[in-house]
Fold these 2 entries.
Entry 1:
Amino acid sequence: MKLAKIAERLSGLGSEKWAVHGEGKRRAAAGENMIFLSIGEPDAAPPEAILEEARKQMRPGRLHYSAGNGELSVREALSRYYTKQTGRPISNKQFLFLPGTQTALFIAFMAILDEGDEVLLLDPYYATYEGVIAAPGGVPVAVPLDPDNGFHPNITALEAAITPRTKALLLNSPSNPTGAVFTRDEIAAIGKLCKKHDLWIVSDEVYASLIYGNNIFTSPFFDKDLEERTIVTSSISKSHAIPGFRCGWIAASEDFCARALSISESMLFGSQAFLEDATAFALDTHFPELDAMRNTYQARAKILIEGLKGSNSVSARMPEGGMFVMVDLRKTGLSGEDFARKLLTEHNVVTMPGESFGACGAGHLRVALTVDEKQVAEAAKRIAALAEKLMHSGH
Ligand SMILES: Cc1ncc(COP(=O)(O)O)c(C=O)c1O
């Protein structure tokens, strides 16, 4: 039987990107000792109090169908959270509670794209972005980020990529995979550009709480002037180390939320009230263990970078935010793909090739900071050793 075009458009999008990870899993299952730096899955346990709240709320009154846009209580908690973040009143009607950032992205693009509409995305980009753009028939247009500029945006290049079909720009700061956190000036310049060309801004802020050093998180949503065109997608997956809850949301204008609701209702018919309660609790509470988790990621990044410092063939920059470090292999002359394969087969270290995240990830490895310091240090040693060997062997 023939399926619709959407199934063809999305088929195969992505599976090859995870080939190195899949091979690592197979070898681990066969009993080999592997170091996994491939997946952005927090290794820290979520705060016990959030689990306790979910258990407490898993009771008859909270097991009914929830409101399509989320229960008032969680939207009130989101309203408090974003009012504090933005410094202006954000109403409880400015949210759609959804199963994770991924669903939020899917619904955002379903709501704004017609077939053939183009979306600017900054390359390297998160592995599922092509799919969420392609689902409603959109066309991803990759705009290169320069690794030598820390993968920060070039506004002139962005503007040059705009055509009459451009409908939106997809932003992800802090970025997976690059670790870049866009500055206030960069976000302002992007906002100005989107206003000038009347573009939507879809801002994936799933790593907003993971910021390092003197970097400051900024969102186009912070600017009242950009509110009507900005759709924020986020969740507690990374901030609270609880991706399996699938608790996320869209934050946008009241008008957008009211109109996009029919899409999410057609698909989901509401979500789980008891998990919404746990999310509200999570958003309203400060957890010192989450500060510790952030410090742990930061410490691991420093160890990795320190471990590569002596090498004259590979290097890495301290991420400004997020859970990942990009290791620059370009001096070795190998692709990220070839290097990741050799690292896997010869040194039992599982990473993601930079190419999995777009053409501009070429010659890089993405390393997830989700294993303990000892393993990170050991992985750095093996990465440096392999690079050294390859440099001297001329491959
Ligand atoms: C950039 C980015 N966006 C979205 C997601 C999906 O997050 P969620 O668990 O909230 O669906 C991820 C998960 O790794 C991610 O890295």
Entry 2:
Amino acid sequence: MSNGGRVQGKVAFISGAARGQGRSHAVGLAREGADVIAFDVCGPVEYSGVPAASADDLAETVELVEKVGGRIVAGQADARDVDAVREVFERGVGQFGRVDVVVANAGIQGLASATADDSEDNWRAVLDTNLTGVWNTARVAVPRMVAQGEGGAILLVSSSLALKAAPNFGAYSAAKHGVVGLMRSFAVELAQHSIRANSIHPTTVPTPLLLNENNWRIFRPDLEKPQLDDVIDLYRGINLLPVPWVESEDITHAVVYLASDEARYVTGVALPVDAGMSIK
Ligand SMILES: NC(=O)c1ccc[n+]([C@@H]2O[C@H](COP(=O)([O-])OP(=O)(O)OC[C@H]3O[C@@H](n4cnc5c(N)ncnc54)[C@H](O)[C@@H]3O)[C@@H](O)[C@H]2O)c1
């Protein structure tokens, strides 16, 4: 990966940064010269369907960012709680003086079920984090970006399940489709301020969100204790290119590009990084 300062001097606000893709984006943007303001819930989210991230995970992200020479302000906040999100944001802007990039990345998988049979609690939990939490993360930063008068980039992390449906993920798919509507709304409203908005659509990525027994059981309901070996060929079957997944760094490459001035005329785009999954 280059360290050519592709986002030098910019400040990036990132949600869900304790691990997985969010951590990779924090490190990747820092490596390219950005200062980072990061938050994560650092604890369980009801109906998330995945093991919880911890405060230690977020501390490790801080260490990794500093190791590549970056500066970071990090805090614990739940994306569903706009006041908590704003507190971390203001603390970061207090330190770095500005914000140029938002990466609304925090998300949960939710529990799988046939869409008509989904529980109201699961439905709400998934919509609250994956759609309202994304809105909260962007909306606390927008007024500051507008006031700066120097443009900016809003990146909303969606999924290939916003471009294509799969059985038993109705709430997730609906929330991720909703993210596209949110992205396009920001794009048309904020273009007059040279603020761009785009969404990114990963296929399978080997983070805790994917690599957990709940997920494996969805693919292999016939097994009591499915393991990765039991599902890896099924993951490969999802994608057009012959890979079971793309790496977090592959998503980070798209994030760095869209955050940088190289993408200065790219807005309103739903960008798949999906090994062809959405056209298979
Ligand atoms: N892993 C995949 O296969 C995959 C595929 C497509 C899209 N995505 C999306 O990518 C994004 C990142 O996921 P990941 O793969 O890194 O998963 P992950 O579970 O490793 O990381 C998600 C992070 O978000 C945090 N988080 C969850 N709910 C939160 C909340 N309410 N407030 C604040 N933080 C919260 C978690 O604590 C965790 O640190 C998500 O939006 C996910 O839906 C993932």
